[in-house]
Structures are given as C-alpha cells and as structure tokens.
Amino acid sequence: MEENSKSDQQYGVQPVQLTGKSRFCFNCGPEVECFTKCCHGMEIILAPYDILRLKKRLGLTSPEFLLNYTIPKQHEESSLPLVLLKMGDDEEKTCSFLTEKGCSVYEDRPSICRYYPIGLATLKSQPDPEKEAAEERFFFQILEEHCLGHNEKKEWTVDEWRRDQGADKDDEMNEDWQAAFLSRTVPDKERGETQRQTLFYMTCYDLDTFRRFVLESSFLQKFDVDDETVEKIREDEDELLRFAMRYMKYVMMMEETMKPKGGVVEEWREKKAAENEPKS
Ligand code: SF4
Ligand code: SF4
User: Fold this and answer.
1) 39 lines ligand 2 (CB under 6 A)
2) CA 55 / ligand 2 centre spacing (Å)
3) Closest Cα to residue 41, out of 7, 107, 3, 85?
4) Around 58, how many Cα atoms within 13 Å sit in the side-chain half-sphere?
5) What is residue 229's three-state secondary structure?
6) What is the DSSP letter of 159?
7) Checking phi first, is residue 229 left (phi over 0); if not, alpha (psi -120 to 50) or beta?
8) What is the Å distance from ligand 1's center to 176 Cα?
9) What is the C-alpha separation between 204 and 216, in angstroms, rounded?
10) Is 267 left (phi over 0), alpha (psi -120 to 50) or beta?
11) Which H helix or E strand runs over 237?
12) Which DSSP letter does residue 9 get?
C-alpha cells in the first residue's frame, strides 16, 4: 500500500476539529490526474462576497446574476434564505464556470471552492445561561474518493492553505452573514416573516437592489447615515456590502448598528400600539 493512500480512511467530512495550525497533505492543479473532477454535482452555497465578485467579473447586475446562475434554498435550522450556484443540466451536473482549461472564474471562485478540501464552521455554545453565547470557529477536512490531491506529499497548515487561497478577505466580508445563521436574538416566528426574509435576501445577495433601496427610498430620511458613508455606498461595492451587513444585523440580530433619526422609533411604537389595540 502507498504511504499516503487514503483507501483505509472513511470518506466525507472528517469528524476532527482542526485549528489554523493543524497540518494536512494536499496538492491541486492541472498536474493532478483528477483535475476538475470536483467541479461537478457540487452543492456550492454562495456567500455575499462570492456573489459580489462573481457578478462584477461577469459584468452583470446582482438580479441578473441571481436569476441566471443561482437557485434558492432555505437553511433548515434558521429558515433563512440561501443561494446555491446552479450546476449544469448535463448528466454530471457540471459547474457553469468549468472550461477545458479549468475554472473560468478562478480568481473570483466561491469561498467553498477556495477552501476545499478544508471546510469552515462556526458553533455557538452557551454553557452559562447568564452569559452571552460564545462563537467558536473551527475547520474540518473533507476527503472524497475522486480527489487524489490528498495523496500528494505537499504539507500545509490550515492557515497556510487559507493564505495561499486568498481566503482571509472572504472570511472578513462574510463573517456577519455566517453569524446570522446562528443568531437567535429574533424569535423564530419573527425571523420567518416574509419582510425579514426579503430583507435578508436583499442585504446579503442582491446588493444592487439594496443600493437602490438605500439611495432611492425614504431610507436616508429614517436613518442617520453620514455623507461620507452615502458617497462610499454609491461608489464602492465592498463598502456597500459592509453597510448592507450593518443593516442586516440591525434587522435580523437586533444589534444597534444603525441609528434611527429622531421620531422614527416613536412613530413605529405608535404604529405597533395601534395594531395591538383590541378591535371593538
Ligand atoms: S478533485 Fe481534488 S485534487 Fe482533483 S482538482 Fe479537485 S480539488 Fe484538486
Ligand atoms: S466555480 Fe470554479 S472551482 Fe468552483 S466548482 Fe465551478 S469551476 Fe470548479
């Protein structure tokens, strides 16, 4: 048996939590016999920063990208909307971005493709009910039979792999989106309301619509947003996404990331009180 053969190992997600310093052997590229075998039949969940980069690369608006390249799904535990990269309708369900030479969007490939064969997970634990739940981020390894990269001798730590694949910026930009799936600040019933679901979809995935919502609706009359931020939202899509995450946390996680203008909260309270008045 070859020294590095994985034939005696169980395939799938490995039940071992890894840290940034954990080591693993792997190599991938055109020189590996299985090159692009993994780009078929994958369930690729797109994070907000994946969508921003891919739509920019393809020269599309976010509604155009979402319509043509994705399918919607609902996250089971949180009921929040997810967006999956659409695979082709050929027998092998080939990724739309795969060409003979490899990935045609390689520099802007989704975070899941970047990380592979490492996965990133976040757990929320609350051993003391008096204290706020703590988030714990960890990594895990994915072994798949078709992937021969695990038999290569090149050794990495998880941190080296993440750096090599350019995953740091992805993690920074997608952190709040990931946290929303674990947040239970808003009760399940309210989180499932259509209005909240629509807002989550727009802030996380449909940034061009969110920009219009901020700049062309009464949004700026309701929230205190300084001129510099408004200018950045117009010009810079990374800043737009950061602002969208601020608003998403305000709505979905009830964090004080936005400042309503005077009178708006009172108006809202009056409206709620009127809604809850007993009907005669
Ligand atoms: S199957 Fe594994 S080694 Fe082969 S191309 Fe995909 S990730 Fe790389
Ligand atoms: S986006 Fe690129 S790397 Fe990811 S599955 Fe598609 S072709 Fe492969």
Assistant:
1) yes
2) 15
3) 85
4) 21
5) helix
6) H
7) alpha
8) 29
9) 19
10) alpha
11) helix 237-252
12) S
How far apart (Å, rounded) are the C-alpha atoms in residues 201 and 43? 19
With tokens 């993994």, the residue in question is 38
CA pair distance 78, 180, nearest whole angstrom = 9
Q: Is 159:139 a contact under the CB 8 Å cutoff?
A: no
pLDDT digits (tens, 9 = 90+) for 119-160: 988 776 666 666 666 677 889 999 988 999 999 999 999 999
Does the beta carbon of 25 sit less than 6 angstroms from any atom of ligand 1? no
**Nearest C-alpha neighbor of 52 from the set 118, 115, 121, 111:** 111
Can you tell me the distance from the alpha carbon of 160 to that of 20, in angstroms, rounded to the nearest whole number?
8
The ligand with the least distance to the CA atom of 29 is 1
What is the model's pTM? 0.86
137, two tokens: 């981020």
- Tell me the pLDDT tens digit for each residue of 81-93: 999 999 999 999 9
Measured in degrees and rounded to the nearest 5, phi and psi for residue 143 equal -110, 125
Nearest CA to ligand 2 atom 2: 103
Gap from CA of 44 to ligand 2 centroid (Å): 9
Amino acid at 97: F
Burial class (CB in 10 A: 0-12, 13-18, 19+), 37: middle
CA distance 12 to 78: 24
Tokens matching residue 139? 């990594």
Length of the chain: 280
Q: How many CB atoms lie within 10 A of CB 85?
A: 22
The CA distances from residue 85 to 3, 82, 140, in Å, are: 36, 10, 22
